[in-house]
TrEMBL record:
Residues 1-92 form the HTH arsR-type domain. The lineage of its organism: Bacteria, Candidatus Moduliflexota, Candidatus Moduliflexia, Candidatus Moduliflexales, Candidatus Moduliflexaceae. This is Transcriptional regulator, ArsR family. Keywords: DNA-binding, Transcription, Transcription regulation. SUPFAM superfamilies: GIY-YIG endonuclease (SSF82771), Winged helix' DNA-binding domain (SSF46785).
Length: 319
């Protein structure tokens, strides 16, 4: 079986609604409206999932008079897990070539004359960069902190950020001022593996559909320096996502608020708290209306807290 076919089937099955649809179709062929009624799903949702199942060759359709009937593809559903994970050598080679080409492109983008120009924002690109720099260290060997700093500084000026990232990522194990390079760091690293597939656009479409059906909660949160009491008040239509991205940026030294980033590095992560101030339900608002209401909510909290100058990290907006 081709690698792309296996991936298509596995991804198509990785959804509870699609599993329920397949289960219903194994009982008997059904049309879209019938599936929507018995599964308590919207017709548009059922149609979306059926299209994914059809693309994976797990269902087929036949027009019968006034309806389009969908059937479960029993041959495809009888495939074993071994059938799905057994990929021919040609496919393995092609996938490896795509991965290596992608890695080479990332390295060309973020390195110039052997120096790292900037740390990528995207996590999988960040991991490729870290992997490239980690080649300067010998697995299983122990280094003093000044030597680690010197080797990293040859590639990137902010060696502190990269050194911490290597510890967090499992490349280094730290004991005081001594760093050991894990001999199996590639296997134990907490960074995600790189996946290069040909169905990226399909995945984006699926994510957009999921977003429409289950939009995230928006609102206002604060990042508080518990040592000084200074605040940064932030709003977003995706509150959880914004909090997570803010944590990640601060952790890796790439937050846009320079004053907050400097204090984070000076006081340490344990000196800061992330607190939700207020959530705003979406209800029947359009995206534009919801964004405007979230911005208005932020303005209210800014007026209340006044997190400017010595009191915070926000910048006063010009009238």
């Amino acid at each position: 079986m081709k690698f792309s076919e296996s991936i298509s089937i596995i991804k198509a099955l990785a959804d509870s609604s699609r599993l329920r649809i397949l289960d219903a179709l194994l009982e008997k062929p059904r049309y879209v409206e019938e599936l929507a009624e018995c599964l308590h799903l919207a017709v548009s949702t059922v149609s979306f999932h059926l299209k994914k199942l059809e693309q994976a060759n797990l269902v087929s359709k036949v027009k019968e008079q006034y309806y389009v009937m969908f059937y479960a593809n029993r041959n495809a559903l009888s495939l074993t897990l071994k059938d799905l994970i057994t990929v021919d050598d040609l496919e393995k080679s092609a996938q490896e070539e795509r991965i290596q080409a992608y890695k080479a492109k990332v390295i060309r983008t973020f390195f110039a004359d052997g120096k790292l120009t900037r740390i990528p924002a995207q996590q999988k690109k960040r991991w490729i960069v870290f992997e490239e720099i980690a080649r300067r260290f010998t697995p299983g060997q122990t280094y003093q902190e000044d030597e680690v700093n010197a080797r990293i500084a040859d590639v990137y000026d902010d060696y502190c950020t990269l050194r911490r990232a290597f510890v967090d990522g499992g490349i280094f194990t730290r004991d005081g001022a001594t760093y050991s390079v894990n001999s199996d760091w590639a296997a134990v690293s907490r960074f995600p593996e790189i996946e290069v597939t040909e169905d990226t656009m399909d995945r984006r479409t699926e994510l957009k559909q999921t977003y429409k059906e289950n939009p995230p909660m928006g609102g206002v949160f604060q990042i508080k320096n518990m040592q000084t009491g200074k605040l940064l008040i932030v709003s977003s239509t995706n509150l959880a996502g914004k909090i997570n991205s803010s944590r990640f940026q601060l952790k890796h030294g790439s937050h846009r608020n320079k004053a907050l980033q400097q204090d984070w590095q000076a006081y340490g992560a344990e000196a800061f708290s992330f607190d939700t101030l207020e959530e705003l339900e979406r209800k029947d608002r359009t995206d534009k209306e919801y964004g405007e209401d979230v911005a208005a909510l932020e303005a209210m909290w800014l007026e209340k807290a006044q997190p400017y100058d010595e009191r915070g990290y926000n910048t006063r907006r010009k009238a």
